[in-house]
Write a structure and sequence with these properties.
With 294 residues, the protein is of the alpha/beta class. It has one domain: Purple Acid Phosphatase, chain A, domain 2, CATH 3.60.21.10. Helix content is 22%, strand content 22%. The protein is built from 7 helices and 13 strands. The chain has helices at residues 22-32, 36-39, 43-56, 74-84, 111-116, 157-167, 202-209; strands at residues 2-6, 61-64, 94-96, 127-130, 135-139, 176-180, 218-221, 228-231, 236-239, 252-259, 264-273, 278-281, 289-292. Strands 1, 2, 3, 10, 11, 12 and 13 form a 7-stranded mixed β-sheet that branches. Strands 4-5-6-7-9-8 form a 6-stranded mixed β-sheet, with helices on one face. Helix 3 (43-56) packs parallel to helix 4. It is globular, with a radius of gyration of 18 Å. The two termini are 17 Å apart. Bound molecules: fe (ii) ion. The site of fe (ii) ion (FE2) has 6 residues, from loops. Fe (ii) ion (FE2) is lined by residues 67, 99-101, 182, 223.
């Protein structure tokens, strides 16, 4: 079974459209002064080529772990939905969940669901999707609008309870189970993320996924733009990083070759090569490896 995983594609236009909000004005400063505009310059073209490259790998399923937009405007959502095109009609092949930039300000509610609801089970989180006869994706939504100086996420007690119900259900026993979320649970060196940037209930979610009665092989996420693999006590976590951020050396995405019965996965990185303008295999990537997931 082949699964593609990409994240943080950030369609980026000069952010002065949509309903005015202090946080969106701050995004203008980030775009102009802090270099976000340069990091994601031409991201529309890379997103189009990324989606085509994913399809060319003949994967069984493709998962995007959020941050499709920059500041959650209607114009950005329309543009990135246009790049997805007919893929939006194929929930059996594609899954997309929102990131904090897709829930950037109050007032943008419903825009993600309007454009990508078909690929996220109508935005009813958490959800369980059987993507092949042996592989299942469980997705949670931990993104929410926050203040100017806060980009933290929250799973919340209600969603954690529902998540536990799904992950301990007998129907998942024997299957290869992938959990998808936007935020990470640990940083690259294994430490917790900062309070203003990470998941507020990271410890509770980690305690949940490390339970003996939970069926889970991989946790897949984005949010941090540099990719890495890390472990909790029991689970393997893979951050795909940003697929389009030019500031990140090796920006790109992952293909997972999964052996569901053996609970093994082989990670292969594909990265953006600006010269020919395409994504290609990165045999030297430190992410490439094969590992057991149980
Ligand atoms: Fe993010």
């Amino acid at each position: 079974m082949k699964l593609a995983h990409y994240s943080d594609i950030h369609v980026t236009h000069f952010p002065l459209s949509g309903k005015p909000a202090l946080k969106r004005l701050a995004a203008v400063a980030s775009y102009s002064l802090a270099g976000r505009g340069r990091h994601f310059q031409g991201s529309d073209e890379r997103i189009g080529k990324l989606l085509a490259d994913v399809d060319a790998q003949a994967v069984d399923h493709a998962l995007c772990t959020g941050d499709l937009t920059g500041v959650s405007t209607e114009a950005e959502f329309s543009r990135v939905a246009g790049l997805f095109g007919p893929r939006l009609e194929q929930p059996g092949k594609y899954t997309v969940i929102p990131g904090n930039h897709d829930r950037y300000v109050r007032g943008a509610e419903g825009l993600f669901e309007q454009h990508f609801g078909n690929l996220s089970e109508g935005g009813r989180f958490p959800f369980l999707k059987h993507v092949t006869s042996e592989v299942s994706v469980v997705a949670i939504d931990v993104a929410r609008p926050t203040s100017l100086i806060d980009s933290s996420g929250l799973c919340g007690p209600k969603q954690r309870e529902a998540l536990l119900g799904i992950l301990t259900d007998a129907s998942l026993e024997g299957r290869f189970v992938v959990m998808a979320m936007h935020y990470g649970l640990l940083r690259a060196e294994g430490q917790r993320d900062a309070r203003h940037h990470g998941l507020r209930d990271d410890l509770e979610v980690m305690e949940l996924i490390d339970r003996d009665d939970v069926s889970l092989d991989l946790v897949l996420h984005g949010h941090m733009h540099r990719p890495y693999v890390v472990k909790t006590k029991k689970r393997t976590i893979i951050n795909a990083g940003s697929a389009t951020d030019l500031h990140v050396k090796g920006c790109g995405y992952n293909v997972y070759e999964i052996d569901p019965a053996a609970h093994r996965v082989r990670i292969s990185r594909r990265t953006w090569n600006a010269g020919p303008g395409r994504y290609e295999a990165a045999p030297e990537s430190p992410l490439n490896r094969e590992l057991s997931t149980r």
